From TrEMBL:
Enzyme category, top tier: ligase
Keyword Transport belongs to the record: no
Organism: Paragemmobacter aquarius
Protein name in the entry: Carbamoyl phosphate synthase small chain
EC numbers: 6.3.5.5
Region (CPSase): 1-199
Segments forming domain Carbamoyl-phosphate synthase small subunit N-terminal: 11-141
GO BP term, pick one: glutamine metabolic process
Gene Ontology terms for molecular function: ATP binding; carbamoyl-phosphate synthase (glutamine-hydrolyzing) activity; glutaminase activity
Residues that coordinate or bind L-glutamine: 55, 248, 250, 278, 281, 319, 321-322
HAMAP family documented for this protein: CPSase_S_chain (MF_01209)
Gene responsible for this protein: carA
Catalytic activity: hydrogencarbonate + L-glutamine + 2 ATP + H2O = carbamoyl phosphate + L-glutamate + 2 ADP + phosphate + 2 H(+); L-glutamine + H2O = L-glutamate + NH4(+)
Entry keyword set: Amino-acid biosynthesis, Arginine biosynthesis, ATP-binding, Glutamine amidotransferase, Ligase, Nucleotide-binding, Pyrimidine biosynthesis
Subunit structure: Composed of two chains; the small (or glutamine) chain promotes the hydrolysis of glutamine to ammonia, which is used by the large (or ammonia) chain to synthesize carbamoyl phosphate. Tetramer of heterodimers (alpha,beta)4.
Length: 388
């Protein structure tokens, strides 16, 4: 049946943009309403990892890839225990799962996790609108009876304060420290979890994806995870050989109040430091640079990035709506990577120190694995200190 023939005669969900545009569709997952920023993700795989990536807190995700739901869901693919994205928008009704790994079906999973989905949407049109007007504020509603107060939904989208100035990392962070340990993980070929004599690494959890912690373990790190609000003293009390700053949601500048003093304290102790995404932005802020909101951000699994040191191009996974303003990088801080889409900053390093970070996602969950070398670079920096 061609897409246009799909009957959506009785809309059971609607997506209202702050500019008054309304998209009608078929609801799935939880019922109710949610208000958030709307972003599009262009990845062709990994909808479950995307929905459970804590960096998507406060955002509804529209998927440009049309076949969503086709591989079902499995707990192994959760990046955190519950979906963190506020809701999902898809072109079609999620299809029946067809995958030996599937333990469940997307729509039921979404219901059980209390998240709203809307299907039957012209996601191409919606994505063009996002590109033109910037990531809009939206209200997403699902009602099986199809009763919607459109004026009220548009008013809620308009009234929403937005992500600028919003610190969400502390909301999705762990509240207690813990040791990363996942015996059930099937390691990629060539990598095994090493423990016992591993490198003592403290990971600060601003909303860490599990696959980042797995990747750190796979290069020999014994990872202790600390809450986002940990102080430099909390970190140094564990006598770390390396400190990792995780990804996370919200506005980096708003997260700086507690993260920046901690990072500056660790920098003063000369410990190898590695950051990813929000962790990259937090390191940049701690070094004195500034971050800015992007128009519609970068969310996908095929973003080309140039490594300026080697001239090599990496195809990367990205998910960010803020960026480090490379014009504000202080002396002694080098830009190491740039986006080949728009030239925005994608990596920094402190001259002469094992301190570096990237805006993109070398853990590739979902996405390409070109940038895994960054985890090895971090482990190598720790190893070099041991042998000195
Ligand atoms: N994935 C992330 O860590 C996102 C960082 C930040 N919240 C942004 O949107 O830019």
């Amino acid at each position: 049946m061609p897409a246009s023939a799909k009957p959506t005669d009785k809309p059971t969900a609607c997506l209202a943009l702050a500019d008054g545009t309304v998209f009608y569709g078929k609801g799935f997952g939880a019922t109710g309403e949610t208000v958030a920023e709307l972003v599009f993700n262009t990845a062709m795989t990994g909808y479950q990892e995307i929905m459970t990536d804590p960096s998507y807190a406060g955002q509804v995700v529209t998927f440009t890839f049309p076949h969503i739901g086709n591989v079902g869901v499995t707990p192994e693919d959760d990046e955190t225990a519950t979906p963190v994205a506020a809701g999902m928008v898809v072109k079609w009704d999620p299809t029946e799962p067809s995958n030996w790994r599937a333990t469940g079906e997307l729509t039921q999973w979404l219901t059980s996790k209390g998240r709203i989905g809307i299907g039957g949407i012209d996601t191409r049109r919606l994505t063009r609108a996002i590109r033109q007007q910037g990531a809009p504020h939206v209200a997403l509603a699902h009602d099986p009876e199809g009763n919607f107060d459109l004026a009220a939904l548009v008013a809620k989208a308009r009234a929403w304060r937005g992500l600028v100035g919003l610190d969400l990392a502390k909301d999705v962070s762990c509240t207690q420290s813990y040791r990363w340990n996942e015996k059930t993980w099937a390691w990629p070929e060539g990598y095994t979890e090493r423990s016992g004599d591993g490198y003592r690494v403290v990971a600060i959890d601003y909303g860490a994806k599990r696959n980042i912690l797995r990747c750190l373990a796979s290069v020999g790190c014994d990872v202790t995870v600390l809450p986002a609000t940990a102080t430099a003293e909390d970190v140094m009390a564990l006598n770390p050989e390396g400190v990792f700053l995780s990804n996370g949601p919200g506005d980096p500048a708003a997260t700086g109040a507690y993260a920046v003093p901690m990072i500056q304290g660790v920098l003063a102790r000369d410990v190898p430091l590695f950051g990813i995404c929000l962790g990259h932005q937090m390191l940049a802020l701690a070094l004195g640079a500034k971050t800015v909101k992007m128009n519609h951000g970068h969310h996908g699994a095929n973003h080309p990035v140039k490594a300026l040191g080697t001239g090599k191009v990496e195809i990367t996974s990205m998910n960010h709506g803020f960026t480090v303003d490379s014009q504000t990088l202080p002396k002694g801080v080098r830009e190491t990577h740039v986006s080949l889409f728009d030239g925005s900053n994608c990596g920094i390093a402190v001259e002469g120190k094992p301190v570096f970070s990237v805006q993109y996602h070398p853990e590739a969950s979902p996405g390409p694995q070109d940038s895994f070398y960054l985890f090895e670079q971090f482990a190598e920096a720790i190893r070099a200190r041991r042998t000195v």
